[in-house]
Amino acid sequence: MADHVRITKSDGILQLVLDRADKKNALTDAMYGALADAFAAAESDREVRVILIAGEGDMYTAGNDVSDFASAGASDAPRNVDRFLRAIAGCSLPLVAAVQGRAVGVGTTMLLHCDYVLLAEGTILTTPFVNLALVPEAASSLLLPLRIGHARAFAAFALGEPIAAADAHAWGIANRVVEPAALRPAALEVASRLARQPRASVTATKALMKRTLAVVDQMDCEGREFAARLASPEAKEAFAAFAERRAPDFSKFD
Ligand code: COA
Q1: Which atom belonging to ligand 1 lies closest to the Cα atom of 62?
Q2: From the CB of 102, is ligand 1 less than 6 Å away?
Q3: CA 94 to CA 36: how far, in whole Å?
Q4: Which of 99, 101, 198, 252 is 20 to 30 Å from the Cα of 169, by its Cα?
Q5: Residue numbers in the chain where pLDDT is lower than 50
């Protein structure tokens, strides 16, 4: 295990398992770094034909570690999250995601870059960026409205309205909803089928499907706005409120 990400490889499948269940798999800078490195290595590893992302415990991921957000706002240091987002957006290999419990923030937006998403029954997706006085990332401000329509995406972003598994399936975010116990086996079965397909055709098909989207450009725009919001007094209030387990009060800011 490296940095709370368990990485295994067999039968053409690279499994990346978030393994920080005591913190609901909240993603730290080190975890993003481990994921980005694994994506980069997979691109030149002929033994890897498909990547499967999953999370240990009762929750896929609670999103970015909020205390990392708080310290990132005070620093200009490069963040591994940017490397991770570019890696997942540019990944040439098919990506399968197995998601249970909750997928918060980047936990949901990363699914927009995956090619086959399985949800366990009862899973809830949320993108509460504005609740934290931030803005959406991972090109989700482009991809989520394209996928589910502006009205639903706006409610999810601006109000943090949850998306239930059945809606995520009906709206085209997920391929299937399965019983929780069947999640990992079903994801492995799909990954294994993909691994047996002709590699060049799979990667060329994925590339053809993605070439019209101005994803990196959108990420750059989002990144500039995100960095400004991260350093804002409203965001500091939101992070402090999370640490103190209270509701944030944005009324004192204009
Ligand atoms: N960053 C850092 N720590 C987090 C976290 C996050 N995003 N999400 C959960 N944790 C930690 C909690 O602080 C808690 O730590 P502790 O046991 O040391 O007190 C532990 O994980 C368990 O979380 P808890 O809140 O008790 O679990 P829950 O099941 O009641 O609620 C969530 C789960 C995901 C609903 C809730 O933790 C939450 O809202 N987290 C923040 C999500 C978020 O805003 N992410 C950023 C999105 S942009």
Answers
A1: 34
A2: yes
A3: 16
A4: 198
A5: 1
